[in-house]
Description:
Elements: H1 6-30, E1 40-52, E2 55-68, H2 72-102, H3 112-126, H4 133-194, H5 200-213, E3 219-224, E4 234-239, E5 242-246, E6 249-250, E7 253-257, E8 271-275, H6 290-300, E9 307-316, E10 322-327, E11 342-348, E12 351-362, E13 368-374, H7 380-391, E14 395-398, H8 407-431, E15 444-446, E16 455-457, E17 468-469, E18 480-482, E19 492-494, H9 496-500, H10 519-526, H11 539-579, H12 583-616
Parallel strand pairs: 16-18
Antiparallel strand pairs: 1-2, 3-4, 4-5, 5-6, 7-8, 9-10, 9-14, 10-13, 11-12, 11-14, 12-13, 12-17, 15-19
Amino acid sequence: MGATFQGLDIAKSGMMAYNASMQTAAHNLANVGTKGYSRQVVKTAAQTRHVSSIKVEGSGVYVQGIVREHNDYYDVKYCKSNATYYKYNTHSYFLNDVQKVLYAKDEKQAGITTSFDEFCKRLTGTSTDAGSETRRKEIVSYAETFSGFVQETATNLKSLQEEANEKIKTTVEQINAIAEKIASLTKQINTLEAYRNPAHDLRDQRNVLIDQLSEYCNVEVKEKEPADGVGLNQYYVYVDGAILVDTQEVNKMQVTELDTTKSINDISGLYQVSWTDGTPFYPYSATLGGELQALFQVRDGNNATTLKGKGDTLTNDADGNLVLTMKKANINNVNLLNIPAQDGELTINNFTYAYDHFDVKVEDDGSFTYQFTLKNNISAKQATILNNAVTSGYEVTVGDSVDYKGIPYYMAQLNEFVRTYSQKFNDVHKSGYDDYGNAGIDFFNATVAATGDNYIFTSKVDGKERSFSSLATPDANGSYTGSYYYMTAMNFCVSDAVSRDPKLVACNAESLPGKSENLNLKKLSGLKDDSKMFLHGAPDSFLQSLTADVGVDGQKATSLEASQKNIRDAVDIQRQSISGVDEDEETESLMTYQQMLFNQYKVLAVMNEVLDKLINQTAV
């Protein structure tokens, strides 16, 4: 009897197979615009039955399953190219802003370079009329404009650093949120697949989350099936070698504020990132990738210009605090020194220690010996480890070496300019005489944060810097005397006394009360052409080099961003060629499956008529 009704069974199998195919095609068409959706296909096979040990007959068709057209290889390529794209995208965004801060396109858009040129022009112009009080006022006014632009530029750069710092926090929050969603979807996928139910749409949703995650960092995904086929799949998401998602568990990133700073130019409250499970997090890893790597580079990049030297001794001061002495330093010029005055950190033998402040002793040969007074939170065990490292002569590094021209780099360049130019200018200015016949005072100065007063800067002795402490302290008269280290682009200004009384501008080379000559003023004007003042040449050349650097770096980042976008989009096109839904193709398939389903109805009708003849119309 089975053979008699076999035609009905065959028609039934065809109806079920083509109905499933039609439903799947309809599902594909419904998701044409769904991001990350992978086309699904019904896999069918011929169904057979054994009539005997040596005979097999066809018995229709059966559905092997619904498969997801997908290629993991292109997912990996897409995530890598996407992470690289967003790294350059973030570089481009911030460097273009830095360029806007530093660079003035024309004379109408005043900036550091323009205001400095205008100041120098006033010096040159006044040299022919040094006795004019109006001319002196112009010099002071343009000097104040120049110093104001320097301060404004530094303030804007610090605002960009603060923006990058805040974006690090929000980026980490986004990574954690995406990781939670991935873990939740993995749980749903495993639950469905444990009962042999497909979870194609959920897997697509999870892949979309992986794509989103790759915007922030490089992502590596591994899925392991159980060895014996029993149990759930293990799904791992790695970020720079550390586990972010372990199937249904999330190892979150943590954001905390640093108690220390990395540079004298840094904002307070810099964020550091760590893993919840204690795995070390390396913010400057070359393989971190994505927006997160770029943000750390922009925020902390110093072009690898950190202070380094050899540990010499470890002693105790009068208060019992540990003092680490470092010699053979790579920075022996106060104008290039940008380590934090206090609450900094140093690293020796891979251990990091916080210091309270430091002192610099200038040796007879002009080299600097640094003495770092460490904070008193060091245990006896840590002190022993530190002493062994110092005794062994390990290298000491102050701050982090980040090989990228970020905000700290450009701030350091501004510091170098104002310190070097101010020192040269003040030395010449103090060698002359003002309109009252008195020796000149510091023309350019810096504001003491504690009082709002000006410093009294010490001059070099026999071409050497004077020893100093990183913390400026007032003398008995309440005056702050010390090194040009205290001057930064943030507190750079014209001396208050000169601002109040332009007659203090030292134009004369000799003491001529009530009289004027321009010999010292000519020396001051000539400093703009001093080609030995900076490594790049004259002051103008230094500023032009600075703006050119950021322009070139910005164009490079923009070019790399565009190039990487093309690569990413090309990979996505390849990926879509496999998993994407073609609306015309699916519509044609839908109509084909409909026709095939109708054919099965015809088979059913024919078989029904045959059986009706056999059963109802044949005489028994």
